Description:
The protein is built from 18 helices and 14 strands. By secondary structure, it is α/β, with parallel strands linked by helices. A hairpin with a 2-residue loop joins β1 (3-11) and β2 (14-22).
Amino acid sequence: MSSSMLGTRRSGRGEEAVTIQSFGMGRRLAQACLALTPWKRRGVLVLAGGLAALAFAPLNLVPLLIPTVMLLLCLAAVAPDRKRAFGAGWWWGFGHFLVGNYWIANSFLIDPVHFGIWIPVIIPGLAAFLSLYSGLAVLVAWHWRKHPLSYVLALAAIWPVTEWLRGHIFGGYPWNLMAYSWSGIDAMMQSAALWGSWGLGSVTMLMAGLPVLFLLAPRRVAVIGNVAGLALLALLWGGGAHRLASDSGATVPGVKLRLVQPSIPQLDKLTGRHRQENYEQHLQMSIEQGGFDQLSAVVWPESSAPAWLERYADVRNQLTEVVPRAHTPSAGLLIVGAVRGEPVTGGKVDRIYNSLEVLDGTGQIIGTADKAHLVPLGEFVPLRRYLPFISKLTPGDVDFTPASGPQTVRVPGLPPFGSLICYDVIFPGNVADHVNQPDWLLTITNDGWFGTSTGHHQHFASARFRAVEEGMPRIRAANTGITAEVDAYGRVIAILPMGAVATLDVDLPEKLQSPPAFTRFGVLGFLLLSLFMSVGGYALTYWRDNRNLLISQ
Length: 553
């Protein structure tokens, strides 16, 4: 049976009475929550959210999600009104996104004289904005707080919806989706093929929230709920392990790629200091390792080749030196990242693109793809008309122009591939042209902006999830960061560590014969999951046999 208590909490308008009907330890927890002053409560929420961010790469401390989400649920449950419920989610989110995105400060520290002053504005400001989504999720779930199990289900149901919104509103920023906490366990990543990272994020929040039932619900409900949760967790892990075991490990015959990771400091790239030496380093690294004549293509990272390749035939001719088997022009290719300008002739460039370009052995550019998702402040200034005093981090006053969407590159000698440049890879469901379907995904990136922070590992984790969702292998060439071969199941087959100056020769894994459900049906999978949880939670709220489980306010 339950027991009632009358607690008080202080606010700017004085003390408010809050009646809480709770159970055993939950009653004591409610008393502790109510005893906290508003600022202590906010501090606890910020700390909990920050600790939850440690569940992501490179630490992947997934168990930390349990106490941190439990604290969020408990402190939000005793909120007396919608404003304070939203505030609980906002403060938790502020700590979460502040810790999860601290690495962005490294970008501003590349040139601290000009950009360092913006760190105290941009980093907390971004966290404050992103916290609106976690605040919204908790606000919606709060309306089901009178039934503990419904409350947990509601948060798990709405969380992926707010993550989807975060990835689309104002251009989107789907960094560190909750599913990515599983990037350290290949088997747990596999359900993303069914319902995407959003669906796995929903299940993750459910798993993290269910233990709160031991504090807020009768023992039998807590035991049943958590046993069911563990069964679901075991099902996902077992299904994922079975999926991985069924892979033959086959590779595409006759395709071998050399990935070049020069690890050039970002300040050198920005200032142009040592430009010629860096360019020659790319050339030398491409050919110095044995087996060059057996390669299908050499791949350089983002912004590795001189700009305006279309205009300079002499530079393209020099690049033929590192096209494999250049004496037979149709046999080998060089894939580079370069700044491309339009028009390609004349004196003035009206538009610039961050591009991937493919050269053959004659020095001709036979394939081009442009970056679709530009980095705010890095490649363009949002609302530039109203913010004339802000400069982008990259040189020049002209903003880059984005491509209209994912692009497939078709060139002789390689299976068609989807081109993804740096930031492009973090957007679930928007990394491949499914009309002009590729067979594999190639990412070129320059993660030198991240310094030695966690950003490298989190960016790479996102790339691995795109491989699972699309059922395609992913090849990744980074200036500095993590250069790797990833199969269609998101498993790392070969890798160069962060900061290594080296090349990596890789075979191309085969794509899956049948596209994953997420590729075919998109958001439908996670929407059905959210709907199922919502309907289940709503039904439980009005289930007569469970009326004694209520937390009434």
